[in-house]
Amino acid sequence: MYVKSAELDLAHCYKLLTGVVIPRPIAWITSVSDDGVVNLAPFSQFTILSYSPPIIGVSIGHKGRTPKDTLRNILARRTFVVNIPSYAMMEQVHASSAELGADVSEAEALSVSMRPTGIDGVPGVAQAQVRLECRLYRTETYGNDQSVLVSGVVDAFDIADDAVDNFRVDARTIDPLARLGGPNYARMAEYSTLAPVGATPAEVIDSRRE
């Protein structure tokens, strides 16, 4: 198939992009509404934007012309938690993508246990091996679909002790769930370690801030 993107509508572009940009990590985001309702929703357009300070980016779409609950909560409170779900959580993660009312907590509806975090009363998923406690950095809007790139500074890393050693995270222990196109998911089937190649020394990277 060969097709110009200008000839496609949003739905077809979405299917093609999410079908080829794979696998994608999942940010299972907890946020809290002004009424205190804990929202839990998965987003797979998720990446690293900066290391110093540590900034992550998540693209959040709209429900028609209405901002999703996660976006509205983040803009109001300027805080959120990115939980990294394991493969064992796949069914709960998938179910949490359903569009529920703003007054309904996906965590309660799906019996996902929460635990306190160090950031303004926003809880994290208790079972997750990794929780990134974030504060809103900025937002940028892209495209005709008005997708919003939410960037957040990672205020704290909360990682299970058995999943990290000397700041090296063991991906096998985390067993992260990945998103493919459509209602399809994946996990790491193989894991290969190669000899290090030349890289910019840490002291040179740090000097760029001066």
TrEMBL record:
Keywords: Flavoprotein, FMN, Oxidoreductase. The keyword Oxidoreductase applies. Pfam families: Flavin_Reduct. GO terms for molecular function: oxidoreductase activity. Its EC number is 1.5.1.-. Gene3D superfamilies: Electron Transport, Fmn-binding Protein, Chain A. Residues 19-169 form the Flavin reductase like domain. Its cofactor is FMN. InterPro entries: Flavin_Rdtase-like_dom, Split_barrel_FMN-bd. Belongs to the flavoredoxin family. This is Flavin reductase family protein.
